[in-house]
Write a structure and sequence with these properties.
Layout lengths: L11 H18 L11 E5 H4 E4 L11 E7 L8 E5 L10 E5 L7 E4 L4 E2 L3 E6 L6 H12 L13 H6 L1 E5 L8 H23 L5
């Protein structure tokens, strides 16, 4: 009879066990995914993958307190630097907010509606609706360019348009969005599994 940690006394141990079993199944089901180092990769221009749109300047003196996240050129808190009631043409969702100023190249996925500083560009996939898994895969790929740019060499829109990135590719040379999604899902399942295994002690 498996012995769970102290949560077993209040019934949560059974929930942990069920969750752990589900995650093991999900993780193992993704075992057929080709490893990154065995996948075909190809260079693409950012401009061919994303529609790149600007943010909009909003000074602190003009900010009105509210509940809408305001995205600034930060490297923390998912880029959220304030909550406002203001609205403007930068209002968007399901995009990456990519810093061209401040913490250059840092970027965060925003599934929720927010507005963006003029120090942040909005990256929306051109040929795919996108989801959290694909955008978070893209986030990591874009961050590989961080060492190339700095405060004195900004990641401005002109350079963004010309920047190339490496992406997993299909047999016909197109970005393999399905692979990116499945790989990210497997990675998150693995991390969740690791977390639960650290929290729950199982003795067979």
């Amino acid at each position: 009879m498996p012995l769970w940690n102290s949560t077993s006394k209040n019934g949560n141990g059974k929930l942990y066990k069920i969750t752990l079993i589900i995650l093991v199944i999900v993780y193992k089901s993704g075992g057929g995914i080709t490893p990154l180092n065995q996948k075909d990769w190809k260079e693409f221009y950012l401009r061919d993958i994303f529609t790149i749109r600007p943010g909009k300047r909003l000074t602190k003196s003009n900010m009105k307190s509210g509940t809408t996240p305001f995205i600034g050129a930060s490297d923390s808190n998912n880029g959220v630097t304030a909550f406002v009631s203001n609205t403007n043409v930068s209002k968007d969702s399901n995009v990456l907010g990519v810093n061209y100023n401040g913490s250059v190249v840092e970027n965060f996925y925003h599934p929720y509606t927010c507005i963006f500083s003029d120090d942040v560009k909005r990256f929306a996939l051109r040929k795919h609706s996108g989801n959290e898994y694909i955008y978070l895969f893209m986030k990591t790929v874009i961050l590989q360019q961080k060492s190339k740019y700095a405060y004195g060499y900004k990641f401005n829109e002109e350079r963004m348009q010309k920047q190339m990135i490496l992406l997993p590719a299909t047999a016909n040379g197109q970005p393999d969005y399905d692979y990116m999604e499945q790989y990210a899902k497997q990675l998150f399942s693995s991390l969740k599994l690791q977390y639960l295994q650290e929290k729950v002690t199982v003795a067979v």
